[in-house]
Amino acid sequence: MDSSAQQVAYDRRVRTNLKYLDEFQGCFIGGAAGDAFGYPLEFLSYGDIIAKYGESGLQHYVLTDVGEALISDDTQMTLFTAVGLLIGKTRLMYRGIGASYADYVADAYTTWYDMQMGQRPQYGAGWLTTITELGVQRSPGATCMTVLGNTEFGTPQHPINDRKGCGGIMRIAPVGLYLHRADGQNGDLNQLYETAAEIAALTHGHELGWMPAAMQAHLINTLAYSSDSLETCITQVLQVTEQQFARCEHLPALTSLVRKALEFTQNTRPDIVNIAELGQGWVAEETLAIAIYCAVKYQDDFSSALRAAVNHSGDTDSTGAVTGSILGTYLGYSGIPEMWKQHLECKDVLLKMAHDLCRDCQGTEYFEPDEQWVAEYSC
Q: Which annotated residues bind Mg(2+) (predicted)?
C-alpha cells in the first residue's frame, strides 16, 4: 500500500472510531461533574448539608473565588487511568511489544502520586504531567496513597491488602469505554473484566474492591456501544458479572445490593431513605448501588440524578462521579445540561482525553502519520 492509500485508510479508521465521541465525552464530563458537585459535601452529614444549603440540599456547583467547580482525586485518577491505557496501546502499536494495560496504568498512577507529593515523576504519563491542577491534593484516598507511596501493587490473585473502598471503582470508567469496542478492537469481554479487576486491585485487594469496578466498566461499555435501555443494560451486566466471578465468595453481596437498588427505584420513599439503606458509598459495592439507583430513577434527568447522588451522608464525590459517568455515557455529552459543563475545572483536559481515548492510536511501527500523538503518548 502506498503512502497516500495508507493515509486514506488511517483517516477512515479515525473517523470510524469518533462515531462514539458523544458517549465518551459524556462519560468523562458527566463523571467529573458529579465529582465536582459532590466534592464540597464529602465529609458532611445529611443534616449538615440541609442546615447549610436548605431543605432540598445543594442544587448547583460550589464555585471557587475564580469561578471554578473543583474536581477531586476521583477525576484526577480517572484521567491517569485513560493515559495509562493509551500509553500501553501506543507502545504496542509503534514498538510491537508491550506489557499489560494494568502495568502501564500502575506507572501512570505512580506519576500522579509523585505529582501529588511535589516530586519529580519516576515515569512518564504523557501530556497530563503538564496539567498543574492534577498535582493539587484534593482529599486523595488513604489506601491509594499508601499503596502508591510503597510502589508495590496487588492483583486479584495476590492482593496487596483487604481494602474494599471506592478508590478502585471511581477511576475505572475509561476501561469500559476503551476495551471491547464495538469495532472489534482492543480485546473481548473477558479482557475487559480482567483488566478492570486488575487495575482496581492494584490498590484495593478485597473482592468487593475490584468486582464492582469490573461491573462498572462493563456497564459503561454496554451503555456506550448499545442502544438498549438503561435497565436492560444493567440486567445484562448483572448476568455476565455472575458468570465472570462465579467462584468469588463475596459475589452475592454485590449482586444482591445492586438488585436492591433497582427495586428501590420503583418505590415512593424519599431518595435519602433509599440511599441510606443502600449505604454511604465509602465502599465500592455501595458506591455502585447508589449510582445505579440514582441513574435509573432519574435516567432522563441528569441534574436530578446528580442531586440525589450527592445529597446524603457519605462519599458524595465518588457516588456523584460514578452516577455521572453512567448517565453521561447513556445520555451523551449532548444530553448533559449546560450548567454542568460551565465552570468545570479541567473541562478542556477532559474533552481532549475523551477524544483521544475514542480516537485511539492508529499508527504502527511502519507508518507514523501523527508525531503529536507519539509525543503525547509515548513512554
A: 72-74, 315, 317-318
By three-state DSSP, how is residue 69 classified? strand
Q: By C-alpha distance, which of 345, 308, 344, 306 is closest to 326?
A: 306
Largest CA distance in the chain: 69
Centre a 10 Å sphere on the Cβ of residue 269 and count the other Cβ atoms it contains: 11
318 is in an annotated binding site: yes
Q: With 0.90 as the threshold, say if the pTM is over it.
A: yes
The pLDDT, as a whole number, for residue 94 is: 86
Q: How far is CA 187 from CA 176, 180, 193, 197, in A?
A: 12, 5, 11, 15
**Topology (CATH level 3) of domain 34-377:** ADP-ribosylglycohydrolase fold (1.10.4080)
* Each residue's pLDDT tens digit, 298-353: 999 999 999 999 999 999 999 999 999 999 999 999 999 999 999 999 999 999 99
CB 69 within 8 A of CB 62: yes
Q: Find out whether 317 is annotated in a ligand binding site.
A: yes
Does the annotation list 73 as a binding residue?
Answer: yes
pLDDT in tens, 104-137: 999 999 999 999 999 988 777 789 999 999 999 9
Q: Are 87 and 377 in contact (CB under 8 A)?
A: yes
Any known ligand binding at 22? no
d(CA 38, CA 50): 14
